Amino acid sequence: MPEGHTLHRLARLHQRRYARAPVEVSSPQGRFVDGAAAVSGRVLTKAGAWGKHLFHHYEGGRVVHVHLGLYGTFTEFAAGLPVAPVGQVRMRMVGAEFGTDLRGPTVCEVIEAPQVADIVARLGPDPLRPDADPASAWARIAKSRRPIGALLMDQAVIAGVGNVYRSELLYRHRIDPFRAGVTIEASTFDALWTDLVALMKVGLRRGKIVVVRPEDDHGAPSYGPGRPRTYVYRRAGEPCRVCATTVCTSELEGRNVFWCPACQV
């Protein structure tokens, strides 16, 4: 599943490509026909993101709300050339110079501007937003007996964190993912938040997740072609990059979590 930095990169890209001009919107797949008709030909005034949610604001107050889910993706093409849709294209946007196709999202809907606030109200602070206030996340963690590994993935606690950042952040701070939230000290949370903001800003800037410190960047390659180099994520059964202990994995509230049992105690 794309993590928060991906949505912020998309928002910035769509702002550059399509904002302040009319956009033609269609649904080649046919599942977003009414929504596309509601905004097609209108000026895209702003593209923004909160956590894993993308919002396209159009003149007149209508907003296209997208959540990519596990399989959603945007692909670009040059406008002005006949490009036949490939696969199940839920939404196609075409501007003056560029077009983009959206496939496989969990959510693609048209809402009214006030409804954006309703969606955001259900989300925790987004580390990539300048107005993020981590106090609300800390308030939830400090009183919860749920594992910290689950709390970090809860979008109502912190918006935008996915499985890679969750597993890697906890490794970098030597925290067992099964520790209850109530056992986390305020100073530890502050360090987690500061590091998370920095890591996600790198992801936003570079377009890829970078979590391994230079001094540890050796040994086994990434877990797959084009995938990030990680300490523990998707490395179950392999030696820890720091202590050589075998990396473990287990299911935590429906998602696999990865950790080093020697480093994270």
Description of the molecule:
With 265 residues, this protein is an alpha+beta fold. It has 2 domains: 4-121, MutM-like, N-terminal (N-terminal domain of MutM-like DNA repair proteins), CATH 3.20.190.10; 135-259, Orthogonal Bundle (Helicase, Ruva Protein, domain 3). The protein contains 7 helices and 11 strands. The protein has a 5-stranded antiparallel sheet, with helices on both faces. A 4-stranded antiparallel sheet has the order 2-7-8-6. Strand 7 and strand 8 (98-103) form a beta hairpin. Helix 1 crosses helix 7. The longest helix has 21 residues, at 186-206. It starts with a helix and ends in a 6-residue tail after the last strand. The model has no long low-confidence stretch (mean pLDDT 97).
Provide key terms for this protein:
N-terminal domain of MutM-like DNA repair proteins, four-stranded antiparallel β-sheet, 265 residues, 2 domains, single chain, Helicase, Ruva Protein, domain 3, five-stranded antiparallel β-sheet, alpha+beta
pLDDT < 50 stretches? none
Number of domains: 2
Helical content band? 25-40%
Categorize the overall geometry. globular
Beta strand %: 15-25%
> Within the largest sheet, what's the order of strands?
1-3-4-5-9
> Which structural class is indicated by helix and strand composition?
alpha+beta
Label the CATH architecture of the largest domain.
Orthogonal Bundle
Q: Give the distance, in angstroms, between the N- and C-terminal Cα atoms.
A: 28 Å
What is the tally of helical segments?
7
> What is the class of the largest domain in the CATH system?
Mainly Alpha
Mean pLDDT score:
97
- The CATH topology annotation of the largest domain reads as Helicase, Ruva Protein, domain 3
Q: Could you state the order of secondary-structure elements as H and E?
A: HEEHEEEEEEEHHHHHEE
What's the multimeric state?
single chain
